[in-house]
Amino acid sequence: MSRRGRSGPTISLFSFQDIITSVTAIVTVITLLLALDLVQRKQSKAGDSSGNLAVELVARLAAAEVELAELNAVAGTTDDLVREVAATSPAELRNEIAERQSAIVELERERTRLERQRGQWKTREKQAQTEQFDLEPVRKQQANALAEAAELDRQRTSEQAENRTSFSLPQGFHKEGWIVVVDATQISVAPLGRPAAPVVWKDSGLPLIGTRAADAFAAWIEKEQLRSVYFLLLVRPDASRAFADTQELLTAKSISHGFDLIGSDQVILHPERGAAP
Question: Is the overall model pTM greater than 0.70, yes or no?
Answer without folding.
Answer: no
